[in-house]
Task: inverse folding
């Protein structure tokens, strides 16, 4: 594999542990406790990492070695098999501290769910074992040049006892920090598979050219796949998760919603701190302190209520996903898809509202570079562009009015 760095982004590829030895988390409670501890650590350097685009390689080693990247692996394969309610709380906690770090495992977790739903027993044992050991899967799924997000031009071609993969990817969140890259590729029958290859595979080039103003340290740049060899053990029939009822689409979406809820939570916490410590009272308020302003108090109340509403729908969605893990049915998958769509709407709205209100309530002082509080708005505006919310309204309404189920794919 080749890693190409496009100045003036990072000056060198990130260095991380290539032979990890992760702790194996045993329960939901341990997962929450571990995430709470890590979130406090990650929050301390979040503003600096964003400002200087310091890629969080060391933090990701801490994150995955903690065992949190393996908590959805079923108990039958050695994992904790935590609930999706717990998983979303973990992502919220980490994203409230640093949403770039919170977003990076999204595609890893989605791939783990695809393996659970569609892979052979031999493949499950292989890949679940590697994930529990601390190996990270990085995304090479979406393409920037195809007709739409679900149209794939990357090909998977039989080659002896294995396959060859060829194509180009973008929005490759996590690939730069991954031990293995899972590539979305179309086989000769037109079916989308995941082709999992080692990060050092010949013909694989990861380019760090992510230049977005938000989620700056996800390094979600390009991956070039030039006739890369993949063994049969690395080809996962992901298309089966769409052809049959599965958790796959809901899982992809609920993690995105959890990141947005985390952004909102972290922003509201920072807003309260800033108002308490830095805001002067408005001239007409008649108060001694900015935090005594009745309009500011009411706005903080409004933010808290809307955050709690979004989190409640997210928890409801998590329970709906939990209900279809073991026995996915058409009805159950529809219920989960609608619940996740509703949560995605409210988590998007509160993330954007909270990041706007931070500066409204914090005043001009809150825009100063020394605080770097604008990172919250940049992160919310960038991450909420995943899977447009206008289509969530449509799918929820179409189901309620016409009984039409949302489509089964990773973006719905």
Result:
């Amino acid at each position: 594999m080749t890693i190409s760095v496009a100045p003036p982004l990072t000056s060198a590829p990130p260095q991380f542990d290539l032979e990890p030895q992760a702790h194996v988390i045993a329960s939901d409670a341990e997962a929450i406790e571990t995430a709470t501890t890590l979130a406090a650590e990650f929050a301390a350097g979040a503003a600096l990492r964003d400002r200087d685009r310091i890629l969080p390689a060391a933090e990701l080693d801490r994150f995955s070695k903690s065992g949190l990247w393996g908590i959805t692996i079923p108990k039958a394969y050695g994992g904790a098999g935590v609930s999706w309610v717990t998983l979303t709380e973990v992502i919220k906690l980490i994203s409230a501290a640093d949403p770039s770090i919170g977003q990076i495992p999204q595609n890893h977790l989605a791939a783990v769910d695809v393996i659970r739903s569609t892979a052979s027993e031999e493949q499950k044992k292989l890949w679940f074992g590697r994930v529990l050991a601390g190996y990270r899967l990085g995304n090479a799924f979406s393409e920037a040049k195809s007709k739409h997000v679900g149209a794939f031009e990357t090909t998977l071609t039989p080659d002896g006892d294995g396959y060859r993969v060829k194509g180009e990817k973008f929005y490759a969140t996590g690939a730069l920090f991954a031990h293995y890259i899972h590539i979305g590729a179309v086989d000769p029958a037109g079916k989308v598979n995941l082709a999992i290859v080692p990060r050092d595979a010949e013909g694989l080039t990861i380019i760090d050219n992510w230049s977005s103003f938000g989620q700056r340290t996800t390094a979600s740049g390009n991956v070039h796949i030039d006739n890369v060899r993949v063994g049969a053990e690395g080809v996962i029939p992901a298309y089966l998760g769409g052809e049959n009822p599965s958790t796959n689409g809901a899982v992809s979406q609920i993690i995105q919603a959890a990141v947005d809820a985390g952004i909102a939570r972290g922003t509201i916490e920072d807003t309260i701190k800033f108002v308490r410590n830095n805001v002067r009272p408005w001239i007409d308020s008649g108060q001694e302190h900015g935090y005594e302003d009745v309009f500011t108090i009411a706005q903080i109340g409004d933010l808290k209520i809307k955050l709690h509403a979004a989190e409640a729908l997210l928890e409801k969605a998590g329970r709906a996903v939990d209900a279809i893990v073991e026995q996915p049915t058409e009805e159950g998958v529809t219920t989960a898809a609608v619940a996740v769509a509703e949560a995605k709407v409210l988590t998007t709205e509160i993330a954007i509202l909270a990041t706007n209100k931070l500066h409204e309530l914090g005043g001009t002082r809150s825009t100063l570079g020394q605080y770097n509080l604008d990172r919250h708005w940049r992160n919310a505006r960038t991450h909420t562009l995943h899977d447009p919310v206008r289509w969530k309204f449509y799918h929820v309404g179409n189901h309620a009015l016409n009984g039409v189920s949302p489509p089964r794919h990773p973006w719905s």
Observations:
- Residues 23 and 66 are 5 Å apart (CA to CA).
- Residues 330-362 form the longest helix (33 residues).
- The radius of gyration is 21 Å.
